[in-house]
Write a structure and sequence with these properties.
By secondary structure, the protein is mostly helical. It has a domain of 148 residues: Helix Hairpins. It contains 16 helices and 3 strands. Helix 14 crosses helix 15 and helix 14 packs parallel to helix 16. It is flat, with a radius of gyration of 58 Å.
């Protein structure tokens, strides 16, 4: 059995995919180690933060004096900024509290004035109502307004009914051919001018459809809605006149009692009160914000404390773990020793991870160079026309297994050498191929001889067969007939 050139070419392509997959896997492994290193770095930062909190339990002058000398200056600056902002906030809070007190006093005074004016307004309104109820002219106008309103409502109801009736009945008149014929000729009016036979026929048709009655109904449906509109307009105008007289009389009594001036004063006070309420709401909102801000500033573990701890952590990052260990040992408490032990363990894990990551990077670089060399080998394979139908390879040549074992550029060079050795052209016989495949050592030497011969003529192939046969069966009998069918020379 042999492997054809196209089949070997397909194996080469599959091998490239396998090698590319190994490169990608190495790259993912290296990237994963980078993620692990980031996690360990975060763990170390957290441990340093815990150590900083241990050495600085709160942001105060006493805690700063008791902590490390290397960080006291920076921590003192943070404390000074805290105290400055606290003073500014307290001063601003006092100012807004004063404004709130002033606005509340103004609002209280305004409420008293508004209550007094409201009572006066209600009292005057009662007086106005009493005087109007006793005013004969106003009473008479009220009765007229009620009657006019009733007449208007009745007329509007009648109009709606007639309008609906007209909309329902007029289409039957408009669709009647006989009625429209007589109506268009103005039958029964002074304008009707027909004579003789036409007049007799029109008279007969009018009697037939009872045109006189139909004409009256039609005129009623057409003209009555418009007449009703005029009646409604007149009734509404009459009502407006009565209502205007009522309003004038009402306004006159209101002026006489002084009610309008009081109503205007009440409205002005209400507007002023709403403005005061809006201003007071803004002041109260600002006071609440300042009180929250001051509470956070007075909190020994507030925002400025977090700034101080972060500054402390930066200082701790610049100190060697051994120095941190020495300082922790010098204290009586065990908490800092435990935290430093965490940091030391993380450092050891980081060192191991760095070594693993460097090995992984080197493996990735080797595999990438191996892949590049493999690509160049594929080009040489095609240039040598090893992928043609006349090219064959011994079946003992396992390309994919060699690719799976390849890990560096030199392995690809060895693979190419082995591939050239395992390749032969279509001029070789099946028996020759079987013999070559049966003995790998014979394969190597025969392939080398074929490469040197170049043209692969009959003499070169014969010499290769002879060498392979001796390689397979030993070197004792140089005249042995190595291949079946070979003719001996006598």
């Amino acid at each position: 059995m042999t492997i054809s050139g196209p089949a070997m070419h397909r194996q080469l392509i599959e091998g490239f995919k396998r090698l590319q997959s190994r490169v990608d896997e190495a790259r993912r492994m290296t990237a994963g180690m980078g993620d692990d290193r980031g996690t360990l770095g975060d763990d170390r930062s957290t441990a340093l933060l815990d150590l900083a909190k241990h050495y600085l339990p709160e942001l105060s002058a006493e805690s700063i004096d008791a902590t490390w000398s290397e960080v006291r200056g920076e921590l003192s600056q943070v404390l000074m900024r805290l105290q400055d902002e606290l003073r500014r906030s307290q001063t601003e809070l006092a100012k807004y509290n004063d404004r709130r007190s002033i606005e509340e006093d103004r609002l209280l005074k305004l409420d008293n004035e508004l209550d007094s004016l409201t009572e006066k307004r209600d009292r005057l309104a009662s007086d106005v109502q009493q005087r109007l109820s006793e005013d004969q002219e106003f009473v008479a106008l009220t009765s007229q307004a009620a009657a006019a309103e009733t007449a208007l409502e009745r007329a509007e109801a009648n109009f709606n009914e007639i309008e609906q009736d007209a909309a329902r009945k007029l289409p039957s008149f408009q669709s009647s051919t006989f009625f429209n014929y007589l109506y268009d000729r103005k039958f029964g009016s002074k304008q009707y001018a027909a004579r003789g036979f036409t007049r007799r026929m029109d008279r007969w048709l009018a009697n037939y459809i009872d045109y006189s009655k139909a004409k009256k109904s039609y005129d009623f449906l057409v003209k009555t809605p418009e007449q009703m509109r005029q009646i409604i307009a007149e009734d509404r105008k009459a009502l407006d006149v009565v209502m205007e007289s009522l309003e004038q009389r009402h306004e006159a009594v209101v002026r006489e009692c002084g009610l309008q001036a009081v109503i205007d004063s009440v409205q002005r006070l209400r507007d002023d009160r709403q403005s005061r309420l809006n201003e007071l709401e803004l002041i109260c909102s600002k006071v609440e914000s300042l009180e929250t801000q001051i509470a956070d500033l007075e909190n020994p573990r507030g925002d400025y404390y977090r700034q101080a701890i972060e500054a402390f952590r930066h200082v701790l990052e610049s100190i060697e773990t051994a120095d941190l260990d020495a300082r922790a040992v010098a204290t009586e408490e065990l908490t800092d020793d435990q935290i430093v032990a965490r940091i030391r363990g993380i450092d050891e894990s980081l060192e191991r991870l760095d070594e693993q990551q460097e090995r992984s990077r080197e493996q990735q670089r080797q595999l990438q160079r191996c892949l590049d060399a493999y690509g160049r080998m594929m080009q040489r394979f095609r240039a040598a026309k090893f992928d043609s139908n006349r090219s064959y390879f011994v079946d003992s040549f396992d390309l994919l297994a060699l690719i799976d074992r390849a890990g560096q550029e030199a392995d690809i060079d060895e693979l190419w050498s082995a591939m050239k050795t395992a390749q032969f052209s279509g001029a070789a016989t099946a028996n020759q191929v079987a013999m070559l495949a049966a003995n790998p050592m014979a394969t190597l030497m025969t392939g080398a001889m074929m490469n040197v011969a170049g043209a692969l003529n009959e003499q070169a192939i014969e010499a290769a067969r002879r060498a392979a046969s001796r390689r397979q069966h030993g070197y004792g009998n140089p005249h042995r007939d190595d291949f079946p069918g070979r003719r001996r020379s006598h």
